[in-house]
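Continuing the batch. This is chain 6 of the set; chains 1 through 5 are on the previous pages. Same settings as before, nothing changed between runs. Recording input and output for traceability.
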Amino acid sequence: MSRPRSKFTDCLGLAVAVTLLSSASRASAQACCAGSGAVTPGRLAVHEDAIVGLSARAAHVFGSYESNGHYSTPPARSSEQSFEQDAIGALRMPVADRAQMALLVPLVENRRAARGISELGGGIGDINLSARYDFLYAGQHRYVPGIGALIGVTFPTGRAPEDATQPLATDATGVGAFQGNAGVAVEQLFGAWLVTAYGLVAKRASRTVQGISTTLGTQWTAVVAVAYSLPDDYAIALSASYTGEGNAEVNGAEVGGTSRRVPIVGISAVVPVTDHFRFQGGLSGNPPIPTLGKNQPAQLALTVTAVYAWY
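Output for chain 6:
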């Protein structure tokens, strides 16, 4: 969810001589580049050819949603924290400048305490490769929004839960199955405001553990975000997402009560350092409201990302 400082004429591809038009172009470009930088991590701005970044995330579990949607706090003397460091890279495709590919390599650590046991474990997580193609850019047309196609695959490079060796499974760092996802992004400019909406569908491959075949349910995610561009390419954004997942299957039979729901709300910002280097930070969490979530922990997370861009 980060973007660098930008040259406004580069971002929109316009050179405006009239002062009034120049002022309007500047505001639109800020929302286009800096504003979108506060929403999507690892995404190239229109004028960027490549980026590399490092991201650090820390999260604390403060509750959980049960299978019936009831929200509860953790038992006494139990606690859970997770940490993640991501290496991020994105590259614009030389054969199609509207297309870009991104790679995310995570390092995951977990700390849990329960039943008088406290342990820390971790390792490499599931690596993700994704691509985006923008048919239209935000602000390109007055009434038609920007439209982008999204596709990606997650590789089971992390340690699956059944392969964990520690008592509280803190060394489990992955799902244990390939995951493919596809989606659509729609975004539009309204002066210094950028409004973005994403829709994603993901499916995990089946896997067999000790002779039992299991398949996680189809997962869908909806994301809405509003970003505001400030002077000097600073930006701030508010976002909300909701992820749902169908019941899992065991040996081809659906298992009731295993579906999941995950609501997330967040605030993030972009802080430019130079024309090539910026920081992005964000705070996100699961609202502790019954029935919103299901079969998921509720947590509060802080993420900080540093990105360097070439153009």
